[in-house]
Amino acid sequence: MAIKHLVLHVGVPKTGTSLIQRSLRQLRPLLRQRGIAYVDRRQIHRLENRKSWGAYATGPESGKSLFASELEAVVKSEKSKVQGRTKSVLISNESIIGRVAPTFGDPYWPRAADGLGEMIGALSPKRTDVIIYVRRQDRLLESMFMQQLHLGRSLIWDDFIREAGRDDRVRYRDLMEVISAVPTVGDVRIRPFEIIGAGAAAFVGDFLSDLDASDLLPHINNFDQSNVSYTQPAWEAAQHINPHLRTEEQRTDTRRFLRKLFPPADYPKAVLMTASERQRILEIYAPENQAFFRDYLPDYPVDSYLSDDATGRLREVLQRIDL
Prior knowledge:
The chain is an alpha/beta fold. The protein folds into 2 domains: 3-138 and 168-226 and 285-320, Rossmann fold (3-Layer(aba) Sandwich), CATH 3.40.50; 232-261, no CATH class. The chain has helices at 17-33, 41-45, 63-79, 112-123, 137-150, 157-162, 173-181, 200-209, 232-241, 248-261, 275-296, 308-312, and strands at 3-9, 36-39, 88-92, 125-134, 185-192.
């Protein structure tokens, strides 16, 4: 199966991946007309041997070749639906660089090379481009914590955030070097998630511009959807309830119950950090963030992740895009 151009949207997790994936699913018929075969997260997560894939590394080693065959079959099926010649294969899946670990010290970025390399090895493209979004660390850590709590994990925020800065899973420079070193990877296109401040439509339009498909934006009608998280009282309740949950059914029922009991429309959003705690996190990562923006995102201010005011200015970059 010959693939001339492979585009991998790899996350990072909690950077608008669900919004982009919903939009791409809506656009799939139109993308096929443009010669783009889109394989989404759901298709890969239904593969029987995905746990043996390097991004997970929790299944038997013998399943790696089976995963490769399954992935190739899915891509081949999508290519067969493209009108005319397939110009690009697009895969959007934040698991490619590894799943989000619930606590510091668990593997996270170390799985990026295997996740990317094995996927590229299975598909053998002539060229691979990677699209990746980054997010200011304090907000990313909050979102990662709330996702795990929402899934029924037993986590204490103070314990979780106390370890911030101890390891490399939310430092971006090394991750970019790992991705760039994978064979056949050409362009690594980096975007700050915070440009979503210009609006969901502009955010998705910016993504589509990398595919020369921003003119398809009017065909999307799901910009008002978002992943539901816990409100302040739901978060406080979940921290007491989650340690007692034993089954997936219990976790699902609890999630639904807390959403219904404390809906976002009626209760405030959970506040995890004080102003001083947030400043501590920003200061921990500030030097590396400034170097990262200088070296990898030269069109953005180097102080973009230094404060809320600086982060807000990132949305201005979309003014130059004609959507």
